[in-house]
Amino acid sequence: MISAAALAKEHPLLQMVQDGPVRFKSNMSHERFHRFLARNEDFRIERDKHGYVAIYPPITYDSSINEGEAFFALKLWAKQNPELGKVLSPSASFDLPDGSTHKADGAWVSIEKHNLLSADERKHIPALVPDFVMEVRSQTDSPAKLRRKMTEVWMENGVEVAFLLDPIREKAWVYRKGGVTEEYANFDAVITVGDLMPGFELVLKDLKND
After folding, report:
1. Which pLDDT does position 209 carry in this prediction?
2. How far apart are CA 125 and CA 103, in angstroms?
3. How many domains does the chain have?
4. What is d(CA 47, CA 26) in angstroms, rounded to the nearest whole number?
5. Average confidence (pLDDT) over 178-182
6. How many CA atoms lie within 13 A of 90 on its CB side?
7. Are 190 and 131 within 8 A, CB to CB?
8. Beta pairing, strands 52-56 & 44-47
9. Which of 55, 80, 95 is the last residue before a domain boundary?
């Protein structure tokens, strides 16, 4: 088995992010940035509207379990309601109206938006705002930065509803179009999207770190 240190030497990006996320300014075009993402698809890489690129370290074992639980609930609901839209995995990137490119830990696109994409657009990173996103805090995520991402990235670019889930502190937030935010102080609640995704519920206790 290859040790983590040996693997880091083999992959320069992994070496860069061993101690946490790395950020730098980039003037890459959308096309070059998309190629950069494709060459490093094992990493969560995003670029904000000011051109700053963030490369995040691989998530931990516990964080991966939590992310998987949340995504499973979303995917299961979507499988039961295929006529309403499509779910995209955490590996999906979106080119947003403000010029940024971001990923979420799960995203859902209405069937109306999905059907507007051409066959060629569906083969690439789309210029598309998902209707619903969720972010699950990992050990390497800053809560404050995640909250800013929810408002300054997802909601300001037109997402209808977004979940921010913090299994570490057992807190959750539901952001809704129009500036309404619901906060949950513990993981005993069940949160919902509403009319946009009827019947979708996320049982927060399923994300508890046992």
Report:
1. 64
2. 11
3. 2
4. 9
5. 92
6. 20
7. no
8. antiparallel
9. 55
Tokens of 126: 């789309």
Alpha helices in 17-165 (DSSP H): 30-39, 61-80, 111-116, 143-148
Domain that holds residue 47: 4-55
Q: Which of 39, 55, 71 is the C-terminal boundary of a domain? A: 55
Q: How far apart are CA 184 and CA 174, in angstroms?
A: 8
Residue 120: Cβ-neighbour burial (10 angstroms; 0-12, 13-18, 19+): exposed
Half-sphere exposure of 141 (CA within 13 A, CB side): 26
Q: Do 197 and 120 share a structural domain?
A: yes
What are 51-90's pLDDT values in tens digits? 999 888 877 888 888 999 999 999 999 999 999 999 999 9
